[in-house]
Amino acid sequence: MSLTETSQLYAVKLGSTLFHMLGDATLSSNVQDLIEIPVGSTMPLFNSALQVRPDVGFTTHQLKSALTLLGVAGGDAGIAKLLGRKIANKTGPVAVGSSAHHAWTASASMGVINTISAGNRQKATCQMRVILLKSGETAALVYAGSQTVDAYTTAIENYVLGPILVGGNILEGTNDFSLAFNPRVSEPDDDYETEPVFASVEATQPVVSFTTTKKSIWSLHNTEFLTAGGPLKVNLICQKNNSLREADIATKHILFTAGSGRIVCESVAGSKQLTRVRCICNSPDGTVAPVTATLDTALALT
Amino acid sequence: MKEQLPSPRPEVDLNPHSNLPVAGVISTEISPAVVAPEKAAEPAPLPFGVYFGVPAAPSETLKP
């Protein structure tokens, strides 16, 4: 017995964007089965696949790439590929340029960022979902065992949680930040295909959550934050290769801004009496996103 | 073998539809004005809610 198809997770490629800083990537074929047991019978006589709805869920640290491709409300992810790098017996991973690798591919897809999370001195991650779509006559999911894989780039993205501001003031002792976009994804069943041909994000309801040691935030409990009084701002600091982190004024960081919403102090817990804060965000004017992402920007300290 | 010499060129261009100069010399150099300059590929538009460098204007504008 020999093992000839061993491979390791390599990357997820969406269009021309290669996500290689992955926590994990799971492809699910999501096959719904039809199994027929005649009434009165003790065994099935028929089974068939009713539908196939493949998708890929993965976590990545490449926040800038994810936001540049999909924005805050999902979008066209182009040709989607889950890439596996072949591992050869005794010699290890096969050269990237070789066509010995594996790929699961869709010729069309819709991608959406579900959640972004970050902590102090902890790499920010973003959890994404890609819905694989049938395009023309090309199936939504095609496996190929003879593929090359793209070489990694040297432009690595790493961010950690930075200052969080409300009303123009930095909140002290913040940590454990998460931004959930809560996308409402439309996957209609209006056609006869076994595989989906359509998917889109109909709406989002972003919610920001973080902890803080600042007890006086309770004076803002159930109050609003607005652009006029100082929006909610969350900075993600860019780490610097072969160094510590990029300077505050370097245009390398990421800033999330919420122009309108309500602060809720959910709970106080733990030996340090940390307050868990939830911010429910609205669009400030009906056209600007409830939470915007500004990339390659200096740290916002006011 | 007798040396072969080019035949004398006609004084009048025998092909009235020819675009060649009368002297019959074709330059292989391409005039810069003839070749359209390559346009730099325009960056893809940013998706909804994402900005580069400066946040969305309404976030930074004080409302009356």
Instruction: Report the principal-axis shape of chain B.
Output: rod-shaped
- Count of helix runs of chain B: 1
Give the count of helical stretches of chain A.
1
How many beta-strand runs of chain A? 25
How large a portion of the residues of chain A is in β-strands, by DSSP E? over 45%
Biggest sheet of chain B, open or closed, and with what strands and sense? none
* N-to-C SSE string of chain B, H for helix and E for strand: EH
Task: Explain how this protein is built.
- The complex is a heterodimer of chains A (302) and B (64).
- Helix content of chain A is 3%, strand content 52%.
- Chain A has 302 residues and is an all-beta fold.
- In chain A, strands 3, 6, 7, 11, 12, 16, 19, 20, 23 and 24 form a ten-stranded antiparallel beta sheet that branches. In chain A, strands 1, 2, 8, 9, 10 and 13 form a six-stranded antiparallel beta sheet that branches. In chain A, strands 15-14-21-22-25 form a five-stranded antiparallel beta sheet, covered by helices on one side.
- Chain A is globular and about 65 Å long.
- Helix content of chain B is 6%, strand content 5%.
- Chain B has one helix at 57-60, and one strand at residues 50-52.
- Chains A and B meet through α1 and β25 of A and β1 and α1 of B.
- β25 of chain A pairs parallel with β1 (50-52) of chain B.
